[in-house]
Amino acid sequence: MAFHAQPGEFYTIRRKVFKLFGAAFHVYDPSGAVIGYCKQKAFKLKEDIRLFTDETMTQEALLIKARSIIDFGATYDVTTPQGQVMGSFRRKGMASTFIRDHWLVFDAAGRQIAELREESGMLGILRRYIDLVGLLVPQQYRLTTASGRDVANFRTHVNPFVYRLSIAVLADDEILEDTMILAAGCLIAAIEGRQD
């Protein structure tokens, strides 16, 4: 996959909001070229997000898979097509469900290296209980390393027909792999995007 993020680069994830069975989204690089495509199956009890290099779905680029069936504090492992674990994301249980989205990020050895958090707690609560807020107010996330360094910002854009998430890469980090930034965006689009 052509994803080696540099500070100042922007990526975009787009998916159609109205789709009866499952969902599909595209990942675009800073030049607007498609570098990823994911088609999710509907009604899956155990989340399995497979990102391919394009719509032909012949070459897998990334796999994000839940460790357990429907869990408020689920952990999602990020692996290469060859099965190499790159890291994982663990959802912060009930707080992510009822207040605001919050994920812990771990490296391949299981050490916590970063956090992905929705920026506004108040807007997070309102978005969950008032549909109009979800439609009119963009969701914003920040990916921060364990040392407190901001690595990337994620922002949804208001559009009733197309879900769009922009990813702004802010800094390089020796511990957090570039691909984990893209994986974070795919998780937001696939999991959190359903709240809109």
The amount of helix comes to: 10-25%
Strand content: 35-45%
Q: What's the end-to-end separation, in Å?
A: 29 Å
Total count of strands: 12
Quick description:
By secondary structure, the chain is of the alpha+beta class. Helix content is 17%, strand content 40%. It has helices at 93-98, 121-129, 131-136, 178-190; strands at 10-16, 23-28, 34-40, 48-52, 60-66, 75-79, 85-91, 102-107, 112-118, 140-145, 150-157, 162-169.
Describe the structure.
Helices cover 17% and strands 40% of the residues. With 196 residues, the protein is an alpha+beta fold. A twelve-stranded antiparallel sheet has the order 3-2-1-12-11-10-9-8-7-6-5-4. It is globular. The mean pLDDT is 80.
Record the SSE blueprint.
Layout (H helix, E strand, L loop, with lengths): L9 E7 L6 E6 L5 E7 L7 E5 L7 E7 L8 E5 L5 E7 L1 H6 L3 E6 L4 E7 L2 H9 L1 H6 L3 E6 L4 E8 L4 E8 L8 H13 L6
Q: What attributes characterize this protein structure?
A:
196 residues; 12-stranded antiparallel beta sheet; alpha+beta
